[in-house]
Amino acid sequence: MVHIFRMLFIWFLLLSYLRNSTSSDNLAVSQYIRDGETLVSEEGTFEVGFFSPGASTGRYLGIWYRNLSPLTVVWVANRENALQNKSGVLKLDEKGVLVILNGTNNTIWWSNNTSSKAAKNPIAQILDSGNIVVRNERDINEDNFFWQSFDYPCDTFLPGMKIGWKTGLDRTLSSWKNEDDPAKGEYSMKLDLRGYPQFFGYKGDVITFRGGSWNGQALVGYPIRPPTQQYVYDFVFNEKEVYVEYKTPDRSIFIIITLTPSGSGFGNVLLWTKQTRNIEVLRLGESDQCENYAICGANSICNMDGNSQTCDCIKGYVPKFPEQRNVSYLHNGCVPRNKFDCKSSNTNGFLRYTDLKLPDTSSSWLNKTMNLDECQKSCLKNCSCKAYANADIRNGGSGCLLWFDDLIDMRKFSLGGQDIYFRVPASELDHVAFNGHGKNMKKMLGITVGTIILGLTACACIIMILKMQGRIIYRKHFKHKLRKEGIDLSTFDFLIIARATENFAESNKLGEGGFGPVYKGRLKNGQEFAVKRLSKKSGQGLEEFKNEVVLIAKLQHRNLVKLIGCCIEGNERMLIYEYMPNKSLDNFIFHETQRNLVDWPKRFNIICGIARGLLYLHQDSRLRIVHRDLKTSNILLDANLDPKISDFGLARTLWGDQVEANTNRVAGTYGYMPPEYAARGHFSMKSDVFSYGVILLEIVSGQRNREFSDPKHNLNLLGYAWRLWTEERALELLEGVLRERLTPSEVIRCIQVGLLCVQQRPEDRPDMSSVVLMLNGEKLLPNPNVPGFYTERAVTPESDIKPSSNQLSITLLEAR
Ligand SMILES: *[C@@H]1O[C@H](CO)[C@@H](O)[C@H](O)[C@H]1NC(C)=O
Ligand SMILES: *[C@@H]1O[C@H](CO)[C@@H](O)[C@H](O)[C@H]1NC(C)=O
Ligand SMILES: *[C@@H]1O[C@H](CO)[C@@H](O)[C@H](O)[C@H]1NC(C)=O
Ligand SMILES: *[C@@H]1O[C@H](CO)[C@@H](O)[C@H](O)[C@H]1NC(C)=O
Ligand SMILES: *[C@@H]1O[C@H](CO)[C@@H](O)[C@H](O)[C@H]1NC(C)=O
Ligand SMILES: *[C@@H]1O[C@H](CO)[C@@H](O)[C@H](O)[C@H]1NC(C)=O
Ligand SMILES: *[C@@H]1O[C@H](CO)[C@@H](O)[C@H](O)[C@H]1NC(C)=O
Ligand SMILES: *[C@@H]1O[C@H](CO)[C@@H](O)[C@H](O)[C@H]1NC(C)=O
Questions:
Q1: What are the residue boundaries of the Protein kinase domain, all occurrences included (predicted)?
Q2: Ligand 2 atom at shortest distance from the alpha carbon of 105
Q3: How remote is the CA of residue 115 from the centroid of ligand 5, in Å?
Q4: What confidence tens digit (pLDDT) does each residue in 512-569 have?
Q5: Ligand 4 centroid distance, CA of 546 (Å)
Q6: Residue 162 lies inside a defined structural domain of this protein
């Protein structure tokens, strides 16, 4: 009897083993997995099985990350052809073809039989790279795989995958139709083989963006590689194949590049590590307007100046429609000013532009071995040649690219672009020399003129030099440092700043903060700026300050106020920022009449913009910046009412792995400070998340957290929002003027995100990448709990809180 029991027990164990672990790692001929069972990769990173996406009830065979929540599917087999119920199986047939059969054993999907070798002893296996392969039992050589899912990408570009062309295969990425339907959607990314092969993004047949061709180091459209080698790209270009791939040297890090069905088809780059099991957003959608393909039309260069985008004709070209001259979107581009006279090489020459994204190469000519001189000669020879450049920038440059048609989709980078030489008539060359672009001409002129003038002014110079030596030498060093780092930043003379601000006149004062007052300045040429004169008490050393400036200058994002220069002289340290005439967010949302100017879609745009800016501050992998004083008066609005975070510069920087820190001096503004910071001076990125949550709820409600009080319940704004939420009346939080033109689900989602951000415990608050995903509806939202500080002055007595010297604290550019 006992024996029988034992037998039964062993059988039971065996059965449950078979059921749960689903055989081993691979599928042999005639074996299959049913719906509900999965195949797991060796190290357990990926899993293959049936799933239903979003709200769909259809069943699909997919590959997903095993330990990642929410379910992150990276590949779908039967994306066009769902199974109607859970009766499907995945099976390896005798010929080594993977098939999905439905309840009546009809094949609804099969893997292609692309291998010329007849499949001998085939097995199917999911690899830890996320690739399902059919291979010979004993042969693990990638080249001999009979079939692999990496050859048929869906919406996700995984490390090791090759996007591009190989005989018989054109591997492209394509988005899902929507979150509930993995069928092919409208966005795709692929390599275009015309001319010099380039990486493109499409919406339908229309190009949305151009990653461009390979310059030996990177794609021309994305010249900066991430600072910490989190991934390395490679590009292979020969007769047999042309593809882009990337690798993650650190095996515990996974980068996921997905082309989401929402957004504008620019793709999102997500990162997760096995250790943190947390998805982080590296890049979400387009980073600025210049990324839109050919936004400036032909022969025109797109330039991002802070938030605003401008188009500039190449020298020698004029806007095709002159009435568009003042319009930043020169969609129609530029045409030559004069007809080119091409008869002799004396009548035209070349002008070098630096730091550019090379124009579209789909009809350009390439020679891989020519050097730049030979390249110039061959361009000169042919009258229709418009420009030339090195194809490969490694080792000082090699190869020759020639353009014969209009030059499309160029942009200026602040870091990492390439040199290109445009053909211009000689008359333009002279003209340009004085405009400061023709470097060589200018140098020559400089030498001749210089030698004459030198004699005359030697004495004066010597006196000047003696007087200003310290300053000049210093400035040279700093300029050199900036140039070495590839930073385009002006260093201003103290006198110029003093004059521009009328000697720091009280009438020009925009605000006063913990780090010092902010003034408005206006240069002789009319350009306006905001200058922060740092207080002398800061105690920061000169080197420290310079390093800080270099770091701040590198922070460029359309949702951050742009630093345009600095001034260091004696004890003076000043930061010069772009001026924002529209002032700050609080001037709109809390203002009696102005509030009507920001309807719900604009507010939602502002909410998302702040989140993106903050995400950039928190997760730019080189610097991790905690703002520490986020509030509506630190959010400035540009002419389009797009938000820009200001005053991030001197916030605390967290280095490398550091995620939190302590401070003795609590600076910040009451109403926005999270409990742990107000009480213990403990701050982390999650403190900013709290402040963000407050701002979000203020934007939705049009009420100041600090001033609001719920008459019946003695609650502040956070408490009030929480009460409405629990009573399922969240929409009532919305300000009256906003009740039109809104999507209720969007509002509710925002409020939920806001409440999650103001949770009492930092660890319960989402990080900014989750916030961004949640706002976009791409991540499930957990349910919020009671927020921190939900009753006015209940959690911490006010005496414990030392807000910085006054309410304006570190306010920039806010006229009061
Ligand atoms: C699936 O549907 C078929 C026919 O519609 C039915 O015969 C079968 O029982 C269903 N299987 C399951 C698991 O529901
Ligand atoms: C199985 O697929 C075949 C062909 O697509 C279809 O005709 C049949 O109805 C399907 N059966 C079930 C149970 O889904
Ligand atoms: C489908 O195939 C399986 C195994 O190959 C077999 O056991 C089952 O009877 C078949 N079902 C039908 C409806 O043909
Ligand atoms: C591979 O199979 C899919 C259907 O699963 C089909 O659309 C595609 O054309 C096939 N490709 C080749 C090269 O046979
Ligand atoms: C796969 O290719 C092999 C070799 O070309 C051929 O013998 C076999 O019939 C093919 N299988 C299918 C399902 O097309
Ligand atoms: C363009 O702007 C300049 C300066 O603001 C102005 O003088 C000129 O008239 C404008 N041109 C057109 C065509 O609007
Ligand atoms: C490239 O240029 C080199 C040097 O001018 C020349 O020898 C070679 O034939 C060219 N190759 C092609 C493919 O035109
Ligand atoms: C100039 O280049 C174009 C494009 O490659 C070509 O069609 C044309 O024949 C060339 N003209 C001369 C004079 O070589």
A1: 504-781
A2: 1
A3: 8
A4: 655 678 888 888 777 788 888 877 665 566 777 777 777 778 778 889 888 888 888 7
A5: 58
A6: no
Ligand 7 pocket mutation pick from 238, 364, 367, 388 by most atoms within 8 angstroms of CB: 367
Residue 191 covered by a domain: no
654 and 526 within one domain: no
Domain stop point among 428, 452, 472: 428
Name, in order, each residue with C-beta under 8 angstroms of 99's C-beta and a sequence gap of 6 or more.
90, 91, 92, 93, 107, 109, 110, 111
**Is the CB–ligand 3 distance for residue 783 below 6 Å?**
no
Same-domain check for residues 624 and 556: no
Which residue has a Cα nearest atom 3 of ligand 3?
Answer: 105
Q: Which atom of ligand 4 is nearest to the CA of 113?
A: 14
Angle between helix 439-484 and helix 542-554 axes, rounded to 10 deg: 110
When divided into structural domains, the chain yields a total of: 4
- Gyration radius of the chain over CA positions: 31
Exposed/middle/buried for 655, CB within 10 Å: 0-12, 13-18, 19+? exposed
* Domain C-terminal end among 547, 579, 611: 579
Q: Note whether 333 and 296 are within 8 A (CB).
A: yes
Q: Token pair of 69, please?
A: 């929540």
Most ligand 2 atoms within 8 A of CB, residue of 102, 107, 109, 110 to mutate: 102
* 93 Cβ below 6 A of ligand 5: no
Helices and strands per DSSP (H, E), number in the chain: 13, 46
Are 351 and 414 part of one and the same domain? yes
107 CB within 6 A, ligand 3: no
Distance 327 CA to ligand 6 centre (A): 10
Residue 257 domain-assigned?
Answer: no
Distance of CA 57 to the CA centre of its chain: 34
Reported as a pLDDT band with limits 50, 70 and 90, residue 797 is: very low
pLDDT tens across 291-350, in order? 889 988 999 999 887 667 788 889 888 888 776 655 555 567 898 887 766 766 567 788
Which SS3 state, helix, strand or coil, does residue 584 take?
A: strand
CATH of the domain at 759: 1.10.510.10
pLDDT at 389 over 80: yes
Q: What digits encode the pLDDT tens for the residues 167-217?
A: 888 999 999 998 899 999 999 999 999 999 999 999 999 999 999 999 988
Same domain, 717 and 682: yes
113 lines ligand 5 (CB under 6 A): yes
Domain that holds residue 90: 21-108+122-136
The alpha helices in 485-507, defined as continuous H runs, are 494-500
Residue 325 CB–ligand 6 contact under 6 Å: yes
Q: Do residues 574 and 516 share a domain?
A: yes
Q: Which of 246-260, 635-649, 682-696 has the lowest mean pLDDT?
A: 246-260
Compute the distance between CA of residue 550 and CA of residue 545 in angstroms, rounded to an integer: 9
Catalytic positions: 629
What one-character-per-residue DSSP string does 203-259 give?
Answer: ETTEEEEEEE-B-SSSBTTS-PPPTT-S-EEEEEESSSEEEEEEE-SSTTEEEEEE-
Coil, helix or strand for 754?
helix
Least confident of 41-45, 615-619, 668-672, 743-747: 668-672
User: Is the pTM for the entire model greater than 0.85?
Assistant: no
Q: What is the whole-number distance in angstroms between the Cα of residue 379 and the centre of ligand 8?
A: 10
Produce one character per residue of 375-413: b if its CB has 16 or more CB atoms within 10 Å, e if not. Answer: bbebbbeeeebbbbbbbbbeeebbbbbbbeebbbbbbbb
**Are 690 and 640 in the same domain?**
yes
The verdict on the CB of residue 384 being under 6 Å from ligand 8 is yes
Are residues 330 and 384 located together in one domain of the fold? yes
Q: Which atom of ligand 5 is nearest to the CA of 113?
A: 1
Residues 613 and 759 in one domain: yes
Q: Is residue 714 part of a domain?
A: yes
Question: How far is the C-alpha of 420 from the C-alpha of 401, rounded, in Å?
Answer: 10
Nearest ligand, measured from the Cα of 76: 4
Structure tokens at 746: 């969007």
